[in-house]
Amino acid sequence: MKQGPGFLHVARNVILVSLALFACWTAAFYITKSAYAYISWNPHDLISLLINAMLGFIFFGLFIVIIGPLVKGREYDFLHEMIQALRSISRGDFRVNLDSDFVKRNGRPGHNHPFAELVDSINDMAANLKVMEDLRQEFISNVSHEIGSPLTSISGFARALKNKDMDQEKREKYLTIIETECVRLSRLSDNLMKLAVLDSSEHASHKTSYRLDRQLVTLVLACEPQWDDKKIDMNVELEEVEIFADEDLMIQLWINLIHNAIKFTPEGGKIDVFLSQSEDKVNVRITDSGPGITKQDQLRIFERFYKVDQSRTRSMGGSGLGLSIVHKIVEMHDGTISVFSEPGEGATFTVQLPVRSA
Ligand SMILES: Nc1ncnc2c1ncn2[C@@H]1O[C@H](COP(=O)(O)OP(=O)(O)O)[C@@H](O)[C@H]1O
Ligand SMILES: [Mg+2]
């Protein structure tokens, strides 16, 4: 019988209360009896019964008042502990771990203690806030690092330029480095701004119906100077596809992917851009003939600030935010993005979007 433990608990309480009542009325009986003997009074049976009953109730009340807090004491202590935990969370100290065994030990068998859910929620909240706080700290340290290194380089070369004896060629070289680092800083602030806007819950996307193939052609042509410079063979095969999406965000998505493909493809390499539609899904595939990405790195390239090769990416001016912006935009359109790559054999990024996202 599943109800067994609950029934035993109720039975135990009934027996305890009955024993308390029995003790109180017995005490009342003997106390009144000796009091009557002491003052030599022999009251009527009814009067004696009423006085007895009243005294019994008073004793029982006192018993509850005295015993109650003793029984409830541990529970109050635990409540206090929970309040303390909430106070430390509000102060930003998330090292909170309430003893959930307490509620298990003190709950009625077969029933959840009323605090049980609260304790789990407080522990979960503290753990989640701790994760968010760690991410925030990591983000700040990444941003500081990304800002710090170009600034060091800019100030170093600017100081060197103060030397009046420097020849023109060296001067030009230093000025170019300073310019590149400034461009990097401004791109970083641009990307950070974009991420902040995408992250904010107030970001309203403006979705419209438009021709995705036309958008992709325009963007590939806009990048022509870059891929033409590297003599890249750009192969574009697009079906006519109409999509319902935020046009501006989509531009950002394709530009980031196409720029990466161009950036990582060596001179004389090849890039393919495919667009097709199958049922209610749109598939965009961008394949390059760059160095490829290892399986391990494929798991992390969508993380903010993640760069596979710090020095190579640095020389190419990346900050590791491009793909996290891509990921965010795909997510906002209920789509998916995947990467297929073997080191040394190029990389393929596939974006799948619903034709009409919610
Ligand atoms: N097409 C690609 N081929 C090889 N590696 C790539 C490619 N696209 C991205 N990566 C790797 O993923 C990392 C993250 O990319 P991304 O977020 O766009 O940052 P970045 O600002 O460096 O371009 C890059 O540093 C690079 O190492
Ligand atoms: Mg990039």
TrEMBL record:
It holds the Pfam family HisKA. This is histidine kinase. It comes from Paenibacillus xylanivorans. It is a multi-pass membrane protein. GO terms for cellular component: plasma membrane. It catalyses: ATP + protein L-histidine = ADP + protein N-phospho-L-histidine. Its EC number is 2.7.13.3. Residues 79-134 form the HAMP domain. Residues 142-357 form the Histidine kinase domain. Keywords: ATP-binding, Cell membrane, Kinase, Membrane, Nucleotide-binding, Phosphoprotein, Transferase, Transmembrane, Transmembrane helix, Two-component regulatory system. The chain crosses the membrane at residues 47-71.
